[in-house]
C-alpha cells in the first residue's frame, strides 16, 4: 500500500497554496513587532539603570563683568551644599574641556578656546538606597546661586518610557490584529474546505466517521500549513533583523542592546511558528466541529 | 433489528415520498426491496442507514429509537451498517485498498489487521490485482465490487445495497447475490433494493414491495416461481 493520503483531499485545495504565505506574512510582522517592543524596553531599561543615581547640576554662567574669584565662589557654594547633603556620595566638577566636548556635536569644535559664556556642570552621584530630597536640594541650590538647575534626567527618560510604552502597545495591537486575521483566515479556509469536500465528508459520515474524525483531517492540514508558513515567516524576520544589524552596525555603540537578540527573542522566533500552527489547528478543529453540529 | 411504525419521509418541505410505512426486519433476515423507479426504494434505504430522518412515525434500529440519537450515537450505529450505494460513492483520490479499508480505519482498527483484512477481501471479490489502483481506472463492475468490499469489511450486522446489480450482467448479478446470501448465513441482515424482478424471483426471500408511497411485505416466492425464474435467467 503506497503512502496513505488524507481521507479528505485538502492538500489539493487552493488554500494549500495561499495560506502558508498568509501565515508567513503574519508571523513576520508579529516577530518584528514583538522584537521591536522588547528591544525598546531593553533600551529604556538600560538607560534608566545607567542614569539612576546620577544627577547633573547646571550652574548658569555669571553675568558680564564678574570676576574669576566671584565665579569660583558661586561654584564653591554649590559644591559645599552638595557635599554636606546627606545621600550625596560623590561630586565631580566638569572641566571646561569636558563641557566643550559635550557641546561639540551642537556648537562645533574649539569651544574651549572661545570666550563663550558656558554653564558650569557638576556630576553628582547619590545613594540610590537613601537618596536626598531632590526638591529641597534644588531649592537650596537655587537660593545659593539663582538659576542653578538640578537635573535628575527623569523628564527626559520619562519621554522615552512613554515612547517605549507606545511601541509596546502598538506591538500588542499588531499581535492581536494579525492573530485575529489569522484566525479568521483559517476559519474561512476551513469552511471553504468543508463546503468543497461536502460529498467526501458525507460518505465518511455514512461509513461511521464521527465528527472528531472529520475534524482531525482538517486540523492536521491546518497544523502542517501553519508550521510551513510560520517557519517561512520566522526565517524572513530573522533575515530582516540581521540585515538591520548590518545597516545599523556603526551606531550600535550608541544603541547598545538593539541588535543583540536575547535567548527569549530567539525562543520567540522558534516558538512563533509552533504557536501559530497550534492556533491554526485548534481553530480548524473548532470550526469543523461547530459547522458539522449544525449539519443534519 | 429494524422496525418502522407509521414512518413517513420527505425531502425538505416537499411531499412525503413514503408514508405510513410499518415493517419489521428480524436479525438474520434477507429482504429484497422492489418497486418501480421513483417508488421510494432508495428513500427507504436512506432511512435505514440514517442519512434521512423520518418526518413522521417511529423508527428503531438495533433497538434504539433513532429520533433521540446524538451525533456520536448515530456514528456508532452506522458502523454496524454496511451500505452499497447505487453510485458506489468511492473516494476518487484513494486507492482501491484505501477505500475498502476506510470503515476499519474509522473504527480505529490496527494497521496490520486492516491490511490483512483488505488483502483477504480484495482477493475474495477478485480485485487482488487492483490493490493500489484508483477507482477511476476500474470498470463499473469492478467499482461495484470495491463498494461491496467496503460495505462488508466491517462485518456489519445490517447490509443495505441499493441496486447492487445495476451495472453488471446477469451472471455477475447472480454471483453477487450468492455472495450476499453467504453473508446472510453468517448472521448479517441483508436488504437489497432492486428493480430486477427476475433476480428477486430467482432467490427465495421476502420482498418489501413499494408502491404508492407505502410498503407491502410479501412472503418468499414459492419454489415453482423460483424454478421458472431460474429458467429465464439461465
How does this model look, in words?
The complex is a heterodimer of chains A (296) and B (234). With 296 residues, chain A is of the alpha+beta class. Chain A is built from 8 helices and 4 strands, in the order αβαβαβαβαααα. Chain A has helices spanning 15-51, 68-84, 96-107, 134-144, 154-196, 198-207, 211-248, 263-294, and strands at 54-59, 88-93, 120-126, 149-151. With 234 residues, chain B is of the alpha/beta class. Helices cover 37% and strands 24% of the residues of chain B. Chain B has helices at 41-48, 71-78, 96-106, 111-124, 140-152, 170-185, 197-202, 223-233; strands at residues 2-10, 16-25, 30-34, 56-61, 64-65, 81-84, 158-162, 189-193, 206-211, 214-218. In chain B, the strands form 2 sheets. Chain B has a 6-stranded mixed sheet, sandwiched between helices. A 4-stranded antiparallel sheet of chain B has the order 2-1-4-5, covered by helices on one side. In chain B, strand 4 and strand 5 (64-65) form a beta hairpin. Mean pLDDT of chain B is 88; it is low at 229-234. Classes of the chains: A alpha+beta (296), B alpha/beta (234). The A-B interface holds A 1-2, 4-5, 7, 9, 12, 199-200, 202-211, 213, 292-293, 296 and B 49-51, 53, 71-72, 75-76, 78-79, 81, 83, 89, 91, 93-95, 97-98, 102-103, 105-107, 115, 131-132, 150, 154.
Question: What key attributes describe this structure?
Answer:
A: 296 residues, alpha+beta, 8 helices, B: 234 residues, four-stranded antiparallel beta sheet, globular
Major sheet summary line of chain B: 6 strands, mixed
Strand order in space, largest sheet of chain A: 2-3-1-4
Could you say which overall geometry of chain A the principal axes of the C-alpha atoms support?
A: rod-shaped
Count of alpha and pi helical runs of chain A:
8
What percent of residues of chain B adopt helix (DSSP H or I)? 25-40%
Shape of chain B: globular
Number of H- or I-type helical stretches of chain B: 8
N/C terminus separation of chain B: 34 Å
Amino acid at each position: 500500500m503506497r503512502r496513505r493520503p488524507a481521507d479528505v483531499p485538502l492538500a489539493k485545495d487552493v488554500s494549500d497554496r495561499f495560506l502558508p504565505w498568509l501565515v508567513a506574512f503574519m508571523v513576520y510582522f508579529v516577530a518584528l513587532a514583538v522584537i521591536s517592543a522588547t528591544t525598546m524596553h531593553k533600551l529604556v531599561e538600560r538607560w534608566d539603570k545607567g542614569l539612576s543615581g546620577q544627577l547633573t547640576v547646571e550652574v548658569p554662567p555669571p553675568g558680564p563683568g564678574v570676576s574669576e574669584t566671584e565665579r569660583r565662589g558661586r561654584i564653591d557654594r554649590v559644591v559645599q551644599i552638595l557635599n554636606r547633603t546627606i545621600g550625596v556620595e560623590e561630586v565631580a566638577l566638569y572641566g571646561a574641556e569636558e563641557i566643550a566636548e559635550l557641546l561639540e556635536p551642537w556648537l562645533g569644535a574649539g569651544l574651549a578656546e572661545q570666550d563663550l559664556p558656558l554653564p558650569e556642570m557638576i556630576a553628582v552621584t547619590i545613594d540610590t538606597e537613601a537618596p536626598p530630597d531632590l526638591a529641597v536640594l534644588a531649592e537650596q541650590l537655587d537660593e545659593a546661586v539663582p538659576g542653578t538647575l538640578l537635573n535628575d534626567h527623569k523628564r527626559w527618560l520619562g519621554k522615552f518610557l512613554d515612547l517605549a510604552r507606545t511601541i509596546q502597545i502598538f506591538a500588542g495591537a499588531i499581535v492581536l490584529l494579525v492573530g485575529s486575521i489569522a484566525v479568521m483566515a483559517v476559519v474561512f479556509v476551513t469552511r471553504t474546505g468543508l463546503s468543497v469536500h461536502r460529498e467526501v465528508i458525507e460518505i465518511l459520515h455514512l461509513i461511521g466517521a464521527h465528527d472528531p474524525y472529520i475534524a482531525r483531517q482538517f486540523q492536521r492540514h491546518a497544523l502542517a500549513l501553519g508550521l510551513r508558513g510560520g517557519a517561512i515567516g520566522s526565517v524572513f524576520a530573522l533575515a530582516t533583523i540581521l540585515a538591520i544589524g548590518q545597516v545599523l552596525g556603526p551606531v550600535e555603540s550608541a544603541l547598545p542592546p538593539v541588535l543583540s537578540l536575547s535567548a527569549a527573542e530567539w525562543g520567540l522566533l522558534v516558538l512563533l511558528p509552533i504557536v501559530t500552527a497550534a492556533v491554526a489547528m485548534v481553530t480548524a478543529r473548532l470550526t469543523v466541529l461547530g459547522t458539522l453540529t449544525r449539519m443534519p | 433489528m429494524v422496525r418502522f411504525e407509521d414512518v413517513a419521509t420527505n425531502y425538505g418541505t416537499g411531499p412525503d415520498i413514503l408514508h405510513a410505512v410499518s415493517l419489521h426486519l428480524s436479525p438474520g433476515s434477507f429482504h429484497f426491496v422492489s418497486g418501480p423507479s421513483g417508488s421510494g426504494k432508495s428513500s427507504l434505504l436512506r432511512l435505514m442507514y440514517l442519512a434521512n430522518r423520518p418526518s413522521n412515525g417511529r423508527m428503531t434500529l438495533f433497538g434504539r429509537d433513532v429520533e433521540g440519537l446524538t451525533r456520536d450515537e448515530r456514528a456508532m450505529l452506522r458502523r454496524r451498517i454496511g451500505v452499497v450505494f447505487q453510485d458506489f460513492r468511492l473516494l476518487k483520490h484513494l486507492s482501491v485498498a484505501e477505500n475498502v479499508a476506510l470503515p476499519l480505519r474509522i473504527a480505529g482498527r490496527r494497521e496490520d489487521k486492516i491490511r490483512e483484512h483488505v488483502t483477504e477481501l480484495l482477493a475474495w471479490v477478485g480485485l487482488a490485482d487492483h490493490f493500489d489502483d484508483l477507482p477511476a481506472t476500474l470498470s463499473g463492475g469492478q467499482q461495484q465490487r470495491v463498494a461491496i468490499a467496503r460495505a462488508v469489511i466491517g462485518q456489519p450486522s445490517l447490509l443495505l445495497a441499493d441496486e447492487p446489480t445495476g451495472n453488471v450482467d446477469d451472471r455477475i448479478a447472480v454471483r453477487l447475490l450468492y455472495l450476499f446470501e453467504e453473508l446472510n448465513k453468517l448472521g448479517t441482515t441483508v436488504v437489497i433494493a432492486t428493480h430486477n424482478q427476475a433476480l428477486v424471483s430467482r432467490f427465495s426471500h421476502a420482498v418489501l414491495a413499494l408502491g404508492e408511497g407505502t410498503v407491502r411485505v410479501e412472503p418468499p416466492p414459492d419454489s415453482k416461481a423460483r424454478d421458472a425464474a431460474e429458467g429465464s435467467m439461465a
